[in-house]
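Notes from the pairing session

We agreed to fold both candidates in a single pass and log them together. This is the raw record for the first candidate, unedited. Please don't reformat it; downstream parsing expects exactly this layout.

Candidate A
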Amino acid sequence: MVTYKSISKILFLVSLIASVQVQAQTAFSYLQSGIEKAERGDFELAIIDLKKSIAIDSQNASTYYNLGTIKGKGLGDMN
């Protein structure tokens, strides 16, 4: 039998999964934006976007790689 409590649990899980997906898309969007800005030579703006991506998803190695590449070339702040 389906109860209010079981429906509540299902809705909670669905909303949790949806919020994780939105965060991942946002982190990826900032990563892509940072890469595009770096390719255009907007290194300071690229660093800002890459840091935003890290704030959302600190487990993405690609973001750290791109941030390190920009900073390694001396093209951004060293913080």
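Candidate B (folded immediately after A)
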Amino acid sequence: MTSILKSMTEGMISTDLEGNVKLMNRLAESITGWNMDEAVGKKIDNIFDLSSVGENEDEYLFEKAMNEGLVAGGTNKVI
């Protein structure tokens, strides 16, 4: 899985169930401004803005996806 994630042409970040970054590819590093070594172990919402846009801007997409068991995404963000 690590080689697949790293070879993807879109920015991808892998987290554990608590939202701690486990792995990210080079495009995700470029998008977030964080390199993987710095990001691993940090909360996803500390390195990438996942706040939802619309009804409830205080609700984070990661939390919504984990709490509701859903795939959540904005126009260019998918969890």
